[in-house]
Write a structure and sequence with these properties.
This protein has helices at 2-41, 65-71, 100-106, 139-158. It has 171 residues and is mostly helical. The chain folds into two domains: 1-40 and 121-161; 58-114, no CATH class.
Amino acid sequence: MAQKHITQCLITNTWFQIQKGANASRADDTKGMKGAIIDWITPHGQTLTPPLSRRNKSDRGFHHEQTGALLCPAGVDWNIPQCVLPSFLYRFSNTSLSRIKDKLRSGEMHVRGDQWPIFLYADLAYDRDDPWHGLLRSQLLVSVSMLSQQITADLKYFFRPTSTSLHPPVP
């Protein structure tokens, strides 16, 4: 009976250690993935303006020109410039499309759950007539998926049990 209790304790302890290691490596890997994503979204031979921090996420999302454009809902044009009208004409104009960036940044415009971000589409191109065309085929998504698969494979290799780890030491 004591041997069974010792075995259960060893298995439980081993499980906790594996879980602790997996959690730590997952955190390290997602930190590394953030840096890789910055590299992937930076146009070849250029730099992002303003540059993105590899540690701080507050300058990302709709607050940054490049990440905001990628997160913008498909079918909505992030690049429509803000309308410049005399203030007395604003009440007569339809400015709903003229301030997409500002509305997304301020939270005035919310992205619904059924609106896919443009970065999920192949070549960042959305077809209004066929919204499924190119969905989940973007190069960025493929790159993240490949890195994620590599991380998972590394974790499986690192944490695979050996025959000795499943049996308690013999006194």
